[in-house]
Amino acid sequence: MARNHSLDNAKFILILLVVFGHMIEPYIEENRAFKVIYLFLYSFHMPAFVLVSGMLSKAVLDEGATDRLVRTILVPFIIFTLFYESVYFLENGHLSKYIKGLQPYWVLWFFLSLFVWRLLLPVVVKFRHPVVFLIMVSLLAGYFDSIGRFMGISRTIYFFPFFVVGYLMTADVLSNLKLNKIPKVIFLAVLGLNIALFSYFHEMSEDWLLGATSYFDYDVQVWSAGLIRFALYCLSFLTVMSFLFLVPKGAGFLSRKGENSLQAYVWHPIFITVITLSGLSQNTMQLSGPLALIIFFVTAFVLSAMLSSNFVMSATQRFLISPAIHFLTILRPRK
Question: Where is the Acyltransferase domain positioned along the sequence (predicted)?
């Protein structure tokens, strides 16, 4: 099957926004513009990433599909968990809060959630209205304080509707002639509305968009929290679709890098950590806000492009993933 260049373009842009968001995250309480941009990004970049993943998934769970899930999702999750925990231990002399609380390490929640989504997809799509069902589950789950960061359960539930929407839509929707005749200014207006809303509600907690904890962690009347989450779902869905229809369709630099976007996703935290600990980020914040944003964005672009290279992809596969898979193959009992 030929690659969908539009999706590859979207994946690189999204990983760029993820890296950029992580670079400005430490300073969102110091600068209102940073906070608005952060809220804007988090309202759609991971939902879009999850939705695109759903577009590329199949509701099949035979032996071959299960084996691929283990090799392409579970093995990388385990390897990078060990890697980041080792780095953290060498730096701090003790285990991280993630491993102590049985939580996925930082960005690695996506791999664990993706593994669960792929396992559950064949079952969920048989429901009459799977998206409505999953949104209702998510809205209700927020009222249970026990559903939180443990094993990434809350995030798995929160983002699952986006995954199923992507699966049901398929990538063909981006090529739909009628939809592509919609004036681009409408999609831009949706993005503008998003920014305007978060400019007004800039004091809201970013945790609303992370989906990692229950409503009890938010400074809001619990009874109304479900309505707020539903409103954010609506805003996120609209923004995600507007973004996808604005993404370039042709092949080029973006699509080539987008093919390896997951490599940038799993590797960028180590570089973000180094940049932060070295004081470079803090020094950048001494500059004017707009100039600091430009520097952070350019740095995020360079990092994303570098980590999405074929070299990084090949090296990761050769020195980390393949040896681990080979080891598991040896351990697997013969039939």
Answer: 4-307
Q: Where are the alpha helices (DSSP H) in the chain?
A: 5-24, 32-42, 45-55, 63-69, 75-92, 97-100, 109-124, 130-141, 153-169, 177-180, 184-200, 207-210, 222-246, 253-258, 261-277, 280-284, 289-307, 310-316, 322-331
Tokens at 188, concatenated: 């831009």
- Terminal Cα-to-Cα distance of the chain (whole angstroms): 32
Q: Of 77, 55, 53, 73, whose CA–CA distance to 65 is shortest? A: 73
Write the CB contacts of 62 (distance below 8 Å, at least 6 apart in sequence).
none
What's residue 309's pLDDT? 97
> What parts of the chain have a pLDDT lower than 50?
none
In contact, 50 and 323? CB cutoff 8 Å:
no
What is the rounded distance in angstroms from the CA atom of residue 86 to the CA atom of residue 237?
A: 37
Rounded to two decimals, the pTM is 0.95
> What number of other Cβ atoms are within 10 A of residue 145's Cβ?
12
